[in-house]
Amino acid sequence: MTGDKVDSWQHKYSSPGERLASLLHSPHLADLTITFPGYHKTIKAHRLVLAMTSPVFEAMMYGPLAEGAELRVPEDPPEAFEWLLEYMYLGHAQLPGVALTVQVYQLASKYQIEALMDVCSEHLRETLTATNLPEMYDTALLLEDTRLLQRCSQVLNHSPTAVLSSPHFGRLSRSALKHLLLQPLHITTEVVLLQALFSWGRSQASTLELREEIIEFLPLVRFLAMSTDEFVEYVMPAGVLTLQEASAILMNIKEVKDVPLPAICCQIREKRLCYHESLLRKIHLNTVHSYPRSKKSARGSIFVHSAHEQILIMNMRTVGTIQLGKVECKAINPCSGSATVSIKDCAGNVLQSATTDGLQVSFEEPVTLRPDTAHSITVCMEGHWPRGEMGDFVAEAEEVKLDGKLAYTEGRFGSVTLYFWSFN
Fold first, then answer.
1. Which of 22, 109, 119, 171 is the least buried, fewest Cβ under 10 Å from its Cβ?
2. Where are the alpha helices (DSSP H) in 182-328?
3. What is the pLDDT, as a whole number, of residue 297?
4. 287 and 369: one domain?
């Protein structure tokens, strides 16, 4: 009948975006079948949608060498390609986990979808941790993503042990592994690097023996920086060195004269641990008292000590080993003369002291704080100091966690900043 509405699928949707989204995985109007050789999977799609998103697809769909009604993509992971299609039809989609995002990023690069490349790069930078770094390191190198590489370098500098111990370390390609091992690795012992190489070698789908799998990387291990106990406990049982090589290296560790080193051994004896200023990190310690104090009572709590030692921090424990370099606090600013700040172990033994005329004190050598013991920080000076009240604190900064008790400073609630290195 004239004037009657035709019942059509278009009427179900109020916008072009909704209509386009409805065609995702739909055979309606589809003029392309996407196949994945080696997989029992096919996808119906629309040539125009692919061409609208990618110049590569435009050439494949409508160029001189245009594909027929079937598009074969033998090298593309089906799950990642399906996600790519969602992006094309929906205009947006929530990014998946790291492993799939890496695959999507590679497809976006292959098909020159620059907007999606930027989205993937930003997502990977935001989700990057020491544990998942090996999953995206190859892609950062392959796609020459300088921002992602810079973020990887930052994480590797701050947490090299966690990167090398990652359960995903075996996912690194051979070239990416070599690139990573040539970076400054601020590790406390070569055993960490050696065990990472063993883990990587054993995870490769290869018929090679472990030695042959990792032999090109062995010259990057500083065997001479190991102790004799480390070498005997971790290197010799692995069987990656011949008995003659192991004996020669062991004698060189012991500094026996006139024993030639095997070609497989690095000649560097220095440990890698590096306390560079650029790697210094900081964490703020604050405590809140359980009841409010007026400014008047706070002012009244300040009194003068004459060269008397006060506790700044007590019972401080850390998750993971850190190397303390500096302490900053308004309370250690002496009115005259100088202040001496001391780091002590749980038995009260002074690990190191340093003197300052200002708010910040730096130690000549980094002070090692280990998680198996509590530490305290004391201040000896002439000048104002609040009454001896302590409050609990818990502080976290990039996988570093501290807790303990902190003194009130300046007559108010405590605030101290610790500057440290952490290579966990």
1. 22
2. 190-203, 210-214, 228-230, 243-253, 295-300
3. 47
4. yes
